Amino acid sequence: MSMLYQAYQNHMDLTAPWRTGAAAALKYLNLVPQGASDRTFGRLAAALELISRASLTYTRPAYGIDSVTVGNRDLQVTEEVAYATPFGSLLHFRKVDGPEQPRLLLVAPMSGHFATLLRGTVKTLLQDHDVYITDWHNPRDIPREEGRFGLEDYTDHLIDFLGQLGPRAHMVAICQPSVSALAAAAIMSEDDHPARPASLTLMAGPIDTRIQPTKVNGFAKSKPIKWFEDNLINYVPVQCKGALRQVYPGFVQLTAFVSMNLERHIKQHVELARHLAKGETAKAETIKTFYDEYFAVMDLPAEFYIETVRDVFQEHLLPQGRLMHRGRPVNPAAIRRMGLMTVEGEKDDICSIGQTLAAQDLCTGVRTYRKVHHMQAGVGHYGVFSGKRWNNEIYPLLRDFVHVNA
After folding, report:
1. What are the φ and ψ backbone dihedral angles of 4, each rounded to 5 degrees?
2. Is 290 a residue whose pLDDT tops 60?
3. Among 73, 75, 231, 349, which one is most buried in terms of CB atoms within 10 A?
4. From CA 160, how far away is CA 376, in angstroms rounded?
5. In the chain, where does the domain assigned CATH 3.40.50.1820 lie?
6. 44/22 Cα distance (integer angstroms)
7. From 3.40.640.10, 3.40.50.2300, 3.40.50.620, 3.40.50.1820, which CATH number describes the 68-218+300-404 domain?
8. The whole model's pTM is what?
9. Separation between Cα atoms, residue 149 and residue 127, nearest integer Å
10. Please, what's the largest Cα pairwise distance for the chain?
């Protein structure tokens, strides 16, 4: 299994000329004057489009956030790398001539896709906050000489990034990194770090997966950790900068995601072909935009993946008070003078109700009046941080919580 990634990459390299040829043929076919093509031309164009798109990309898509409305003004937004390591960048969405607003670090998960999955979250937050995001780099592009990247390294990155933001910044963690975000806040509080966050918001995060376990939690506990090492960890292909680095490949993760809703994905591609054949450009573009993002995959460092499965989902170290960081215990009770907000979704089948709320009981040093919990009715996992309910019901609560603690 360890050479599956190499075999996959070889296959994609061998079939690349077919996709390139299809894209070139489609370009020339589109030069046919409008009205001159018949149904056959439409079907041919649809077939060429699907062939040219039959691959994954390992490059981060663009965030595409060029402006944001603040009050009654439209402000230009530029992306600036405020700080970077080989494994990630602290990306700043700077508003040109914008007002002074609370600085906020949005912590993106390492889950097989790029941080651009949170572009909608970023755009909403930008209305009232000075937003930074953890823009993780693809391990297949990171040379082995740069070393390992495990769960402790993730936590260290959050501490370093908050150090770059300076005092009184706020941290919002989405899903998986909630554990590292809570650990970073605890360590910085215990050390009286000047840049410890003024508030911490954990959204749909697996703080204690013993509570109402989901199918995802059940799968993580159904196999010994060695099974995950033997069956899911591969070497980065020799064609890549990160050659022979051990990773959990993005294409393997995507295969698992697609298989969970295979019928839906097949139906979507049938619909895409139909829209293309009929010349329904707008409808086709909606589907293409979704899959451009969905098929942009990122590998996970093997150490990070294995340690997350073991420490978070199998051994539950944080809620049991046994999580260590660089040889010292992680003590959430050390968190004081910090606002704590937890958010969960009623229909979340990845991180069920109660798993994120558990952070409230762990943080005994936070005064009750500085704790906020919100359970959003009618939303699943992604609805906690994207979509209408996020924009209209969850975000106003988070915005007010951050501003109260600013």
Report:
1. -60, -40
2. yes
3. 75
4. 32
5. 68-218+300-404
6. 10
7. 3.40.50.1820
8. 0.90
9. 33
10. 73
